[in-house]
Design brief:
- The radius of gyration is 22 Å and the shape is globular.
- With 474 residues, the protein is mainly β.
- Helices cover 3% and strands 52% of the residues.
- The structure holds 2,5-dideoxy-2,5-imino-D-mannitol.
- The site of 2,5-dideoxy-2,5-imino-D-mannitol has 14 residues, from strand 1, strand 5, strand 9, strand 13 and strand 17.
């Protein structure tokens, strides 16, 4: 638990090959959604869904950490936990945070009765967010709007300020139909007036349940991000771009925010007026393996969001990451070939640019075992215009398994492919041309000499920069 000297706990994991060292995660145990991101007195506070008692989901509480630069973090005491007999007795689920004229306020979902009833609650702090007091009038919203026709799924309030008061969006579903986002307004964060559905899902492919909504203005447009259940829970993150008219959202563009493991993202505005997103990078291994590891769940490197002229969301890892980069390797087409081992590090930051005329398949191999038994490849197939993460692993009994994740990534005529690859232990974040995101988790068995090499012909390459990355915890 955080209260038991987080530095010593983190130190105890230093030999864990799969544990990331420059991404945020708690000292130990389970983490899922980012919660309550807030810029406060020059620092960013992150809260997160946390099980303080074990590495699997349960006892949902809000863990807490703070950062000066979005890269280095200091653990703080757990902010809120379930109160026996209270409206959050079964869990303090996800939510957001606001600065209410100098009073930091958390708005979150309380669950009671084994998650069958979900309600909205608030908590405030008067000591710079070290201790929190739950409001005596909790729950501040006790019932899902009647049109939902169910009480079980009504969660993850996201709150922001407009000239005529506080607004809140909450994720839900209409029984037998599809996902929905409900819109509320309040003057004091305690008394809430239900307005109407902000947006109702109509197509099954966007999900039967919408959770973790974010709704914000970006440039001239409004963006709605939802995490949706399309087939099974915790599935795909979609974003819609459009206009906010008479309390209704009218989307004119929709896309997938990430094709891999990133889920339940949350955004906020930082001190430089940047809209920044964090997302939970889910594990891709069994409960048994997570229990054995003693930790589960990682946050993405925060990403700065912008829209392009086609209303596509662009995501750029915060430039602050460059300040911790270590040893640097730089290549062009004429200075490298596929056989060359660039580094044996499994904590690297990579920027690659390819020629607009490049044909065939090309990319980067990481986590490559010297005997070729295991590797992970980030590949662009220019014929199919597909971005892929391909993983080859060899089990200890010799069984070989392969796994491919793919995303369509269309390049305009003459547009060069750019890849940003953040590899950190078992975490792999890939962003192509700032707009196609494909995150993955990989757990190689070989745990030494993880080679980073070029994949495909060097002629495809324009430039390749690779930096070894240090631990942010030392
Ligand atoms: N996880 C939280 C919920 C949210 C879901 C509970 C998404 O509030 O809807 O841990 O991962």
């Amino acid at each position: 638990m955080i209260e038991q000297n987080p530095t010593a706990i983190r130190q105890a994991f230093s030999e864990d090959f799969h544990r990331p060292q420059y991404h945020f995660l708690p000292p130990s145990n389970w983490m899922n959604d980012p919660n309550g991101l807030l810029f406060w007195k020059g620092q960013t506070h992150i809260f997160y869904q946390h099980n303080p008692f074990g590495p699997l989901w349960g006892n949902m509480s809000w863990g807490h950490a703070v950062s000066d630069d979005l890269i280095h973090w200091r653990d703080l005491p757990i902010a809120i936990r379930p109160t026996p007999g209270g409206p959050d007795e079964y869990g303090c689920y996800s939510g957001s945070a606001v600065d209410n004229d100098g009073t930091p306020t958390l708005i979150y979902t309380g669950t009671r009765d084994k998650a069958n009833i979900q309600v909205q609650c608030i908590a405030t702090s008067d000591d710079d967010m070290i201790t929190w007091q739950k409001h005596p009038q909790n729950p501040v919203i006790s019932e899902v709007p009647a049109i939902a026709n169910q009480t079980r799924d009504f969660r993850d309030p996201y709150v922001w300020r407009e000239d005529d008061g506080w607004y809140m969006v909450v994720g839900s579903r209409i029984e037998g139909k599809a996902g929905v986002i409900f819109l509320y307004r309040s003057q004091n964060l305690v008394d809430w007036e239900y307005l109407n559905p902000l947006l109702e899902g109509t197509e099954e492919r966007y999900g039967l349940m919408w959770e973790c909504p974010n709704f914000f203005k970006l440039g001239d447009k409004w963006v709605l991000i939802i995490s949706s259940h399309t087939g099974h829970s915790t599935d795909t993150v979609h974003y819609f771009v459009g206009d906010f008219v008479d309390h209704h959202f009218v989307p004119d563009y929709v896309d997938v925010l990430d094709y891999g493991t990133l889920y339940a993202p949350l955004t906020y505005v930082d001190g430089q007026d940047r809209r920044i997103l964090f997302g939970w990078l889910r594990e891709n291994r069994s409960d048994r393996d997570q229990s054995f590891a003693g930790w589960s769940g990682v946050q993405s490197i925060p990403r700065v969001l912008t829209l392009d002229d086609q209303n596509r969301l662009h995501m750029q890892p915060v430039p602050e990451l460059a300040s911790v980069r270590g040893e640097h390797f730089h290549y062009t087409a004429s200075t490298i070939d596929e056989s060359q081992v660039i580094t044996a590090s499994h904590h690297v930051d990579i920027e690659a640019t390819y020629s607009p005329d490049a044909s065939g398949s090309f990319g980067i191999t990481v986590l490559g075992a010297p005997d070729g038994d295991e590797c992970t490849r980030v590949v662009y197939d220019s014929d199919r215009q597909q971005l892929m993460v391909y993983t080859l692993t060899t089990e200890t009994n010799g069984a070989i398994s392969t796994h491919t994740r793919a995303a369509v990534h269309l390049l305009a005529d003459g547009e060069a492919l750019t890849l940003r690859i953040l590899l950190d232990g078992s975490v792999l974040e890939v962003i192509a041309n700032e707009r196609t995101s494909l995150t993955a988790r990989v757990y190689p068995h070989h745990q030494s000499q993880q080679q980073v090499r070029l994949y495909g012909p060097a002629t495809a390459l324009t430039s390749l920069d690779i930096w070894e990355m240090p631990s942010i915890w030392q």
